[in-house]
Amino acid sequence: MLATLWLLSLSLPTSWAQILVSCAYKSLCQQALLSGNDVVLQCDHLKARWYFSSILGEDVLLLSSVPNIKKLPGGSLQLTNPQPSQTGLYHCEDNDSALVVEYEIDFQDVTTLHITHKGLGQKPLQNETLSLGGKELIFTHWDPWQDCNCCGEPGEHKRLGYCYIEEPLEKPMPCWLYLQEEKVQYRRMWPEMQVEACLIPCDHIK
Ligand SMILES: *[C@@H]1O[C@H](CO)[C@@H](O)[C@H](O)[C@H]1NC(C)=O
Ligand SMILES: *[C@@H]1O[C@H](CO)[C@@H](O)[C@H](O)[C@H]1NC(C)=O
């Protein structure tokens, strides 16, 4: 029980610094992120105009009236404490209404984070096939391991993983972007965090 409480403390939104997401000029990039963690979507255009369309099929709206979203002076968009409901398409255009960059962001719910510790023999979520009749695979797409939290003595490091769905021969997609407005919920649709012991010598740091 103690171990569980301690692990949960790792999942506080403050554990991660603000994340910068960028994408090539005139391109569309897809990304899964954790809700509750501040993010900046890059758009280098001084007169950038941003539009958002939700995966729930709501109307496109000009992003000036949303309280937790701010346009930075250089044109990029800052989202403070983004919510799963803000999953969708972020479109940045220039003053001539030409596309600069687009992001499809899946804010996966940090409150459902599935945390496992390797040293305690806990296993991450298993791959599963969807019951939609197709051959879609639902799995966790892992980020690289983060740095060990100390050196010269046993420490721990962690990695984050996001729910993805893959069809044979297709590029995997973040779960909520894949399912869009389909109201289905799968038990397996959680982001994950895995914790593991690590031991690194101090002279390897810096
Ligand atoms: C957009 O900005 C560019 C450069 O600042 C300018 O040359 C162009 O006339 C502007 N277009 C409109 C429609 O305002
Ligand atoms: C789960 O599926 C992913 C994506 O196809 C694959 O990379 C991974 O190796 C699979 N994991 C297991 C345990 O089969």
Q: Provide the succession of SSEs.
A: HEEEEEEEEEEEEEEHE
Radius of gyration: 19 Å
Q: What small molecules accompany the polymer chains?
A: 2-acetamido-2-deoxy-beta-D-glucopyranose
Number of strands: 15
CA-based shape? globular
The main sheet comes to: 6 strands, mixed
**What share of residues are in beta strands?**
35-45%
Number of helices: 2
Average pLDDT level: 87
Fraction in helix: under 10%
Give the end-to-end Cα distance, rounded to a whole number of Å. Answer: 36 Å
Oligomer: single chain
Total count of domains: 2
Organism: Delphinapterus leucas (Beluga whale)
Family: Belongs to the FAM187 family.
Membrane topology: Single-pass type I membrane protein
Signal peptide: 1-17
If you had to describe this structure to a student in words, what would you say it looks like?
With 206 residues, the chain is mainly beta. It has two domains: 2-12 and 110-198, no CATH class; 19-108, Immunoglobulins (Immunoglobulin-like, Sandwich). It has two helices and 15 strands. It has helices at residues 2-9, 175-179; strands at 19-21, 28-34, 39-41, 49-54, 61-62, 69-71, 77-79, 88-93, 99-108, 114-117, 128-129, 137-142, 155-166, 173-174, 192-198. Strands 10, 11, 12, 13, 14 and 15 form a six-stranded mixed β-sheet that branches. A five-stranded mixed β-sheet has the order 2-9-8-4-5. 26% of the residues are buried. It is found in: Membrane. Keywords: Glycoprotein, Membrane, Signal, Transmembrane, Transmembrane helix. It is a single-pass type I membrane protein.
